[in-house]
Design brief:
By secondary structure, the protein is of the alpha/beta class. Among the domains are: 182 residues, Rossmann fold (3-Layer(aba) Sandwich); 105 residues, GMP Synthetase, Chain A, domain 3. Helix content is 29%, strand content 23%. The chain contains 17 helices and 25 strands. A seven-stranded mixed sheet has the order 7-6-5-3-4-8-9. A five-stranded mixed sheet has the order 12-13-14-15-16.
Length: 550
């Protein structure tokens, strides 16, 4: 096919989609807007731009060049935000290191990514100590230190972060280059095998920022992000760029609050003190905040929170709504940058009873602009959009990772058939709402039929004594597999309710809702805590391995 290319004037600016372009509008319209770290340090967007330039100058002084990798190990901070911009704007690659991995896994990710410089908070020096001598590519270490106190370190530091910036030039000419240049890399949490490197280009990050901003900014009211909001992330900045929301918040010139380490009391205090109005987190974090002893004294009404990482139960949605929180689902995965869909409600939906609203808010939602989302059979045929027919969710959008770093076979499998395979099972209703019903690896196969672990969790979670629940499949000689619910009780219900009572309650609901006739084979076991991944997701693989290991 022959296409006609539009000619351009010799001096026309091609405007590559580079991360630096996200700073134009906030610097022009919100230069005095505030960014705060823990409610203690405060500075303006004008200062942010200066510090970005100083960081780039300082890193250049350490020999960092385009194409090299700068790794970051810090809590959620203004420094992380500066790295989100300065490092890729230089043409270098930012590696956001998952500080909740084991030391050996961190060693693997740093060596695999080929990190040249490591910026590290003193809190993580204990993780560095056993692996420092085996880092094969790191040439310089930069200390991040809130305490300004003597430190016993396993390495020599080329600089301390604030000292590096103070000594560096506030002038840095960030160049234009190919928008398809790699900007970031981070590693999946490795629930199976070694962590896999997921990477994104400038073009992908800019388009994801515009896609999310368009979606949340055009909502009728519920879940809408606007210029007068106060933003605070409660998903780690090392994980998929904190879902890309710091880029969105910066583009829109919002007041931004970075909390450091996630401590429930401190988070609640910041929400109240800084008047935080928009956040995002995984379900266990929301549960933790709602149940914390100081929570009742904090007014959470009007707080908009996107829930992702794992399924939000209608029970959790109801609990959040009861506190006045505008809670809703955002769906995606590490490989999708991550946001693909958001569960916004229409004005008519907001007139529905709370129980029906909770169900809608817990769905996976409507796809963002530019997202081509399908639910397909193994032969890649579309299933009916009736809210019942299920299949695997596959997607295309301009911000999906093109593969895994140095992993050709896994990359080919990820993109089989020209669509990115999420490994999620779901359905689409007549309105276009997507509902994830399970992960392919978590679905329970009983007597040759599939039972959704997520649907069973929704039912069990309706019991007033249940704080958290995870349902997994366990081997059964007669049925092949049967569902086992691992239940964490609310503190004031321990010793007052039996496993049998929870099972009977659930069995009646399973029968009345018609989820699955095999759901009535459910077993219930009380546990003190559920296994979680390093980013707070429920880790069913670990639960299965723990239960099935002799």
């Amino acid at each position: 096919m022959s296409v006609k290319i539009i000619p351009s004037a010799p001096n026309a600016y091609a405007y590559p989609l580079l991360i630096k372009q996200l700073l134009h509008t906030p610097l022009a319209t919100a230069a005095d807007q505030e960014i705060t770290y823990q409610g203690k340090l405060r500075y303006s967007y004008r200062t942010l731009r200066e510090r970005i330039a100083r960081l780039a100058s300082g890193l250049a002084g350490l020999g960092v060049e385009a194409g090299q990798t700068v790794a970051m190990m810090d809590w959620d901070s203004h420094r992380y935000l500066e790295c989100f911009f300065a490092v890729p704007m230089m043409g270098a690659v930012l590696q956001t290191v998952n500080v909740r991995l084991s030391a050996e896994q961190i060693l693997y990710t740093l060596n695999h990514a080929g990190a040249d410089v490591l910026l590290i908070n003193r809190d993580f020096l204990e993780l560095l100590a056993p692996i420092a001598s085996r880092l094969t590519t790191v040439k310089h270490f930069v200390l991040i230190d809130d305490e300004a106190a003597p430190v016993d370190a396993p390495v020599s530091f080329a600089a301390e972060y604030e000292g590096l910036l103070a000594a560096a030039s506030a002038q840095y000419d960030f160049p234009d280059f190919d928008e398809n240049a790699q900007a970031t890399v981070f590693y999946t949490t490795g629930t199976t095998g070694l962590p896999k490197g997921v990477y994104f280009s400038h073009r992908q990050l800019v388009l994801h920022t515009l896609g999310v901003a368009t979606c949340v900014g055009t909502a009728a009211g519920q879940g809408r992000l606007h210029r007068e909001d106060v933003y605070m992330p409660i998903t780690p900045m090392f994980h998929v760029h904190a879902w890309g929301l710091p880029y969105v918040a910066t583009l829109l010139g919002l007041k931004q609050v970075y909390p450091g380490r996630y401590l429930p009391a401190a988070l609640l205090q910041l929400i109240a003190k800084e008047k935080v109005s928009f956040s995002h987190c995984v379900p266990p974090i929301m549960q933790m905040l709602l149940s914390h002893p100081t929570s009742a004294a904090v007014d959470l009404s009007g707080w908009k929170v996107m829930i992702g990482g794992s399924a939000m139960s209608p029970a959790l949605a109801r609990a959040a709504l009861a506190r006045g929180i505008d809670v809703f689902t955002g769906y995606g995965m590490s490989e999708t940058c991550p946001v693909l869909s958001v569960a916004h409600l229409s004005s008519d939906d907001l007139q529905l009873p709370v129980d029906q609203q909770a169900t809608l808010r817990s769905k996976t939602g409507l796809p963002l602009p530019l997202v081509d989302l399908r639910v397909v059979t193994p032969e890649m045929a579309d299933v009916a959009h009736d809210g019942v027919a299920s299949g695997e969710v596959v997607v295309r959008s301009p911000w999906l990772t093109q593969g895994y770093l140095k992993a050709a076979q896994a990359s080919t499998e990820l993109w089989a058939g020209g669509y990115l395979h999420t490994q999620d099972i779901g359905n689409i209703d007549a309105r276009g709402y997507v509902k994830i019903t399970d992960r392919i690896k978590d679905v329970i196969k009983t007597a040759g039929e599939w039972t959704s672990s997520l649907q069973l969790e929704d039912v069990i979670g309706q019991h007033e004594a249940v704080l958290e629940v995870a349902v997994i499949g366990v081997p059964d000689e007669k049925w092949g597999e049967r569902p086992l619910a691992l239940v964490v009780l609310k503190a004031d219900c321990e010793g007052r309710i039996s496993e049998h009572a929870v099972r009977n309650f659930s069995a009646h609901l399973i029968e009345s809702t018609g989820i699955s006739r095999h759901g009535k084979l459910l077993q219930v076991r009380f546990v003190k805590a559920l296994a979680k991944t390093s980013v707070g997701k429920i880790n069913k693989r670990e639960m299965r391995e723990t239960l099935l290991t002799p």
